[in-house]
Amino acid sequence: MQNKIENMDSKSIAFIDEQESDINHSTAKIEQRISHLTEVLDSNDFDLVFAYKSRNEEFKRMPAPYQVTLPTFTPQMINRKKIYQQFGSLSELCTSREEYEDETKSLDAISLSPVREELMHKPRLISEIQTDYGNQCQLIGISCLHDSELWTCGTDHTIRLYNFEGGLVNRVQILYDSLAGNIAVTLCGELVYTNSFLRCINIVKNAKTLTLVRLLDWMPLFLCSSSSGDILVTMINDIGEAKVVRYSGSTEKQNIQWDDQGQPLYSSGDKKDISENTNLDICVADLEAHAVVVVSSAGKLRFRYTGQSSSSTTPPSASTVQSFRPYCIATDSRGRILTADHIMHCIHITDQNGHFLRFIEICGVYYPRALCVDSRDNLYSFNCMARSKIKKIAYDV
């Protein structure tokens, strides 16, 4: 923006200089003409007097006036979560007591438990957004454009933008008679979506749909926008491998697939919702693995969350497998991870290190199919049993 302002300033000064030069040139001509007329009057030469021709009309035409149209500033909605990501994050405080060799009794290490975030004792339903979805066309995905509008996709061939009064603001037709697998919004407010059938990732710019990435051996599933402007995409191939890929525009920048022991990070299932946290961790809700798999921005495994009070770098146990079904995921401005349990009809909230904080019963939302959080940490979800309404829920104090 600074360069743009300086460029406008340079153009304005150049135009003013040009106007000043034209005026000075006209002034010089007028002064020269006055001097000539004085000579004619003083000469008493009738031939010069009769040969004189007035140039008043010529000198009446002044340079065109300088028309100024001041630029206007159009502010954008401020996304607090993205701002927090730019600042970075602070890890939890941990302390321990050292063991003295000359002591007869050693002291156990003491580690402070994670600080409990300020959460409402009971979440509050703020409003319900009525949409055009229903039994014929079921709602399957949502993404916040800003704090007053939501993009939605369903089982038809259209992506719709709704305001919070339920008004239809915009729509994008999906090409080739196929469905949008998942949707997200970039830092610039542009809609991106996966097309699993055609194995491509598309972006909508200036009401035109463009293909960013076209894949051959991999099928894109879910995606999210990162704080750096990149796009993170989960995908699988035909032989059951899964990975997360980071794209900058159409360029692949990072491929996350294996842990340090060469074992796959993700299951072969096709339900892998994804979200980037404020500390730049990449969080994947791996439904078939019954775990939330969290890796660092460098792709190193940090932990697997497999249910309440369970956080480790090892796969979940058989007992946990039966109870935790992470279908969708979101992160908020405080770095908390919100994971919807599809079977237990609740949301698990953990801190950025995978420590369990609390459950949220989702205000009448059963079998949650999608989550998103706006910049004010309001939660949005919808009822699998009544797909036409999106619920806006407050859970943060």
UniProtKB/TrEMBL annotation:
Gene: LOC111109963
The organism's taxonomic lineage, starting at the top: Eukaryota, Metazoa, Spiralia, Lophotrochozoa, Mollusca
Top-level division of the source organism's lineage: Eukaryota
UniProt xrefs under InterPro entries: 6-blade_b-propeller_TolB-like (IPR011042), TRIM-NHL_E3_ligases (IPR050952)
A Gene Ontology biological process term: proteasome-mediated ubiquitin-dependent protein catabolic process
Name of this protein: Uncharacterized protein LOC111109963 isoform X2
Organism: Crassostrea virginica
Gene3D superfamilies: TolB, C-terminal domain
A single GO molecular function term of this UniProt record: zinc ion binding
